[in-house]
């Protein structure tokens, strides 16, 4: 890629899930080739490849690990399940530290089976964060609460808006807990711009992710995110909002899309980088 | 149904779409048999059966038409499309008046093709309402803006929250424009209780609908609403919220669900009435 291309990609990070058909070594070599400086990693493929081995791969290639996805799932009522969730999140924090990233993204978890109590679930997240935040800080890791689109409120994440995420985060120091703004999850929300400003004022914009919104949504709605520029989201204006709020960090592209996954991973990575330059 | 059953159904209304496999005469006779006092009607099946014929059917059976669904789709940019939309909504208002209901539900419309401008679309809804609200008032019809779940923001309804719906409604007299609260669309929103109170204070709670939230959502996400009691929504607490806000009107059950539609309509109607008594 040309020098101007490299400059245009200076803040670009590819979330590993976007090109999950690529192995970690393939992803790494392609990033180097295309001048992509950052990657967001996921725990499961990292564990499969090996934690230290992944960390070395990233270091040797000069890649920045912008985030680790993901901790969270902190809404269980059962005490044993809660202990397991805390332990698993501490492991995720340790993994983030080993990978050299400063940010662990949290997907908070949905309603426990049979429960209809969203507020209770949000309270349990706050309780869990009280234990996790200082642990994370001791490892040099910031937690980034990611509000997920309200269509995931029951089964994946009871934190549906940036306002809710900030209400949780602000119980803790900004160096410990902030938010992850993903355009796919917040684009519909006319309150989100003000909440981005609130997050910026508080130093809590810990991560920024892009995906576009396309319809029809697929069954289960998880894997229907749109390639940048192909959907309804004005990505540039969201980027401007986080930048006006003081965010100058990586811009991570995270697409879950069965159609994109069924194609060639290298071409997808290159196309995603081009669409980032064109649309974001 | 027993006398206590009839009393328990005193405010129940069945939205026609819930049991769309029933013809209008079948729906009418089953409602009479079960002691269901109200129905919410849809324009298309009413037009197929005949407007005056439907009105007579309802009157003769002593059924209250609680709402007509639906007007709206007011977000077009093209001037000709806008004129057509206004004309079509005036026709819907006339049909509502002919059916003897006082409420036309509005689904506001999604983004026009190629547009990413949610705020612009919301502004065009306000402009259209300025023309429609006095026309509706002259026919004795109230418009009820229904916020739809944010998963419909691009393709169906840019009004995603009760707050947005009230921001639009409050430009007009409460006798002309209010809101329709549907549990399926607002249940995830921690701001909705305060907005229900706001709507109640302003006399703008024009309709209340129930559906439950179940997952996984089907492809397209339109026809995956849950039978009452089978999902994540605390229906009783939402009913309590609208009643505390002063709402004493009909409680309409509106389910779109392919699995429910594939079964026997009479059994579905009876089961829905029973679930209403048990869960709402």
Automatic annotation (TrEMBL), chains A, B:
<protein>
    <submittedName>
        <fullName>Sugar phosphate isomerase/epimerase</fullName>
    </submittedName>
</protein>
<dbReference type="InterPro" id="IPR013022">
    <property type="entry name" value="Xyl_isomerase-like_TIM-brl"/>
</dbReference>
<dbReference type="InterPro" id="IPR050312">
    <property type="entry name" value="IolE/XylAMocC-like"/>
</dbReference>
<dbReference type="GO" id="GO:0016853">
    <property type="term" value="F:isomerase activity"/>
</dbReference>
<keyword id="KW-0413">Isomerase</keyword>
<dbReference type="Pfam" id="PF01261">
    <property type="entry name" value="AP_endonuc_2"/>
</dbReference>
<dbReference type="InterPro" id="IPR036237">
    <property type="entry name" value="Xyl_isomerase-like_sf"/>
</dbReference>
<feature type="domain" description="Xylose isomerase-like TIM barrel">
    <location>
        <begin position="31"/>
        <end position="269"/>
    </location>
</feature>
